[in-house]
Specification:
- The complex is a heterodimer of chains A (332) and B (302).
- Chain A has one domain (50-331): Orthogonal Bundle (MetI-like fold).
- Chain A has 332 residues and is mainly alpha-helical.
- Chain A is flat.
- Chain A has helices at 2-16, 19-22, 25-63, 65-70, 85-116, 119-134, 137-167, 172-175, 183-207, 211-219, 224-253, 256-261, 279-286, 293-324, and strands spanning 74-75, 81-82, 326-327, 330-331.
- Chain A has 14 helices and four strands.
- The termini of chain A are far apart.
- Mean pLDDT of chain A is 84; it is low at 328-332.
- Chain B has 302 residues and is α/β, with parallel strands linked by helices.
- Chain B has one domain (3-297): P-loop containing nucleotide triphosphate hydrolases (Rossmann fold).
- In chain B, strands 6-7-8-3-9-10 form a six-stranded mixed β-sheet, sandwiched between helices.
- In chain B, helix 4 packs across helix 5.
- The two termini of chain B are 21 Å apart.
- The relative contact order of chain B is 0.16.
- Mean pLDDT of chain B is 79; it is low at 1-48.
- Classes of the chains: A mainly alpha (332), B alpha/beta (302).
- The complex binds adenosine-5'-triphosphate and magnesium ion.
């Protein structure tokens, strides 16, 4: 009896003094682990940015940050002048176009698998799509070189080029050299590669729409499609948008497949079919041959710029998620 | 109760003067089946006091996989009455209610057998489109469910827009009418264009009711519509139900005995998936036949 009383007294004491609970060793260890790991991730990221900046600072000092970013000449051989503008342009064009191409099919697939398809079919489709994400970039690049690029050249680029040559020769400078490796091929491969991300993120957003919303809409006499249009898409729009932006981040950073298919041309203007380059592709292509320290530093500076862009894109996605998120029926 | 009802099967309810007597026994099913169409159909006929069937479930069983939600429920719902469904938690009230407008179609594991007749036609018939059924049978859920990205106005007219009504003057008119019916108009008339999710919980529930009313349903199903509301909002919704029953048939699930007593004409008591007893609210509350009903009503369990 007395022990029982003691226990209760102890519990009461503990409860009156809540901080005592957290001082117990298990909690302490766990808190320590979580905080340490959390901080080290932040430190790791910061140190990456720091190293990139440090290594790139020679180039950034030489040309100035904006001079470097806006500079259109990239000449590592003769003048040793480095400007990242062509690559920035190449990255933005290919990834934004890839996003635009992939977003509608991705949303359609996400809606189909989340709302229409029977479970077994949805599972098959899901797995197939996730398979694309599991294929290494370099393998997709090889497939692009041997299958996609020749096919696009023969069935799309050349006929269009020929047609333009005979009917609208003024279009030719915009179309560029239809050799098969170039901006459009890279964009199409990028679109394919981000479909799994856009689909998965869109599906998450659709799945997070409360069942009550669907039922309320159904109870009004809505058909399946009307439920999607009236209840699901408006509710999920923030998540879908954020998913699209995150996929854009993936496209911006995608390296190997793009480097293998974009044709690697360092001078503007880039044309529709013709060769181009992106920030990651120029880094992977020239890194091993960069003998001049300014050249190396310039590649690092491109890496730093890429880091900044990735940061902005991710922050933007986070902002969209917050802006459009709907919690407990309230639009925040 | 179910077994002693065989003899009452044949009771023609046209000659029953005493409604309570009639209602006590309708668990046995409809009188005067006639004109079989797609299975069974019977013509709704005026009973004494001008009451006729609006809906009717016969041997309705709903299963979730192998779990039974409700089993073998035969229950008529009369035109322009308020029918209260009561019973302890988990007894199948929501399950029964959702069978009445085919909401179980949306639950993968749910299966429905038996018949649910609306004006004599089985709504689970092969040639019946559930979308059309749900346009005639409105539903209000326990939790308010405004569409959060829509304005108050758009929430109310959502059902009308679904059927393709775009004429602004008509939408305006219906919006005002429905909001007035739901006793919400005065509070929101100056901010019809602001988001529906910006209202208080009680206002949101009245908005959900207005949305359901805007499409002029013949039957209204309400699943504990006031359980999350303050007394004042509850009052307003009860008043609304009271006036509404002149035009609409209402089935309401409630855990609140006083509410069932205040609002309903008839009460059905469910217990572990079975309809135990049904009758006029007055009879159920003053002289229940079954001890379990009595125990539940007097608060001894549930
Ligand atoms: N989606 C579901 N899946 C499986 N079982 C379910 C599902 N919905 C309800 N049930 C089961 O069916 C039975 C009846 O549930 P129902 O929701 O109809 O009860 P209720 O009377 O509405 O209860 P409450 O008063 O708590 O709302 C319960 O045993 C419940 O566990
Ligand atoms: Mg319920």
């Amino acid at each position: 009896m007395s022990t029982d009383k003691d226990t209760r007294k102890n519990i009461r004491k503990l409860l009156r003094n809540p901080s005592a609970i957290y001082r117990r060793p298990g909690d302490l260890l766990f808190t320590f682990l979580v905080v340490t790991l959390g901080i080290s991730i932040i430190l790791l990221t910061l140190s990456m940015a720091f190293v990139l900046y440090g290594e790139g600072s020679a180039a950034l000092r030489e040309f100035g940050f904006f001079g470097f970013v806006r500079g259109t000449t990239w000449d590592p051989a003769v003048q040793l002048v480095f400007g990242a503008w062509p690559f920035l342009l190449g990255t933005v064009t290919t990834s934004v176009m890839a996003l635009l191409i992939s977003i509608l099919p991705a949303i359609a697939v996400a809606i189909f698998t989340a709302e229409y398809a029977p479970r077994w079919l949805a599972n098959i489709i899901d797995n197939l799509i996730q398979l694309i994400a599991a294929v290494p970039s370099v393998v997709i690049g090889i497939w692009g070189i041997f299958v996609l690029a020749p096919w696009l050249r023969d069935t799309v680029y050349l006929p269009v080029f020929m047609w333009a040559e005979s009917s609208y020769p003024q279009l030719l400078p915009i179309l560029g050299n239809p050799m098969g490796y170039g901006m459009t091929t890279a964009t199409i491969v990028l679109a394919l590669m981000i479909v799994p991300y856009t689909t998965a993120l869109t599906k998450d957003a659709i799945r997070s729409v409360p069942q009550e919303q669907r039922e309320a809409c159904r109870a009004l006499g809505a058909t399946r499609w009307e439920v999607i249009r009236m209840a699901i898409l408006p509710y999920a729009r923030g998540g879908i948008l954020a998913g699209a932006i995150l996929s854009l981040g993936r496209a911006i950073g995608e390296t190997m497949a793009v480097a293998m298919l974009i044709g690697n041309k360092n001078t503007l203007p880039f044309t529709i079919f013709g060769a181009g380059a992106t920030m990651p592709s120029v880094i992977v292509n020239e890194f091993r041959e960069a003998v001049e320290s300014l050249h190396l530093s310039s590649l690092m500076a491109i890496g730093f710029t890429l880091f900044i862009i990735a940061l902005i894109v991710n922050l933007f996605a986070a902002y969209l998620t917050r802006k459009f998120s709907i919690k407990g029926g309230q639009v925040i | 109760m179910l077994n002693n009802s065989a003899k009452l099967l044949k009771t023609p309810f046209t000659h029953l003067k005493d409604i309570s007597n009639l209602l006590m026994h309708q668990a046995s099913g409809p009188a005067r089946a006639s004109k079989p169409v797609s299975g069974v159909t019977f013509t709704p006929e005026p009973a004494s006091g001008g009451k006729k069937f609006r809906m009717q479930t016969r041997n309705l069983t709903v299963r979730y996989g192998t779990t039974i939600g409700v089993e073998d429920v035969t229950l008529p719902i009369y035109d322009k009455e308020v029918l209260a469904l009561i019973g302890p938690s988990g007894c199948g009230k929501t399950t029964y209610l959702r069978a009445l407008n085919r909401m179980h179609d949306l639950t993968r594991i749910a299966s429905v057998t038996g018949e649910v007749l609306l004006d004599g036609t089985d709504i689970y018939g092969n040639d019946i489109n559930p979308v059309n059924i749900r346009r005639r049978i409105g539903m209000v859920f326990q939790k308010p469910t405004p569409f959060p990205t829509m304005s108050i106005y758009d929430n109310v007219v959502a059902g009308l827009k679904l059927v393709g009504i775009r004429k602004k003057s008509l939408l305006d008119e219906v919006c005002e009418r429905a909001l007035k019916q739901a006793a919400l108009f005065e509070e929101v008339k100056d901010r019809l264009r602001s988001p529906g999710a910006g209202l208080s919980g009680g206002q949101q529930q009245r908005l959900s009711i207005a949305r359901a009313l805007a499409v002029d349903p013949e039957v209204m199903l309400m699943d504990e519509p006031t359980s999350s509301l303050d007394p004042q909002s509850t009052n307003r919704i009860e008043e609304l139900i009271h006036t509404l029953k002149e035009q609409v048939t209402i089935v309401i699930v409630t855990h609140n005995m006083q509410q069932a007593a205040r609002l309903s004409d008839r009460t059905a008591f469910f217990y572990v998936g079975h309809l135990i007893e049904t009758g006029t609210t007055n009879d159920i509350f003053t002289k229940p036949k079954e001890t379990r009903t009595e125990e539940y009503i007097s608060g001894r369990f549930g």
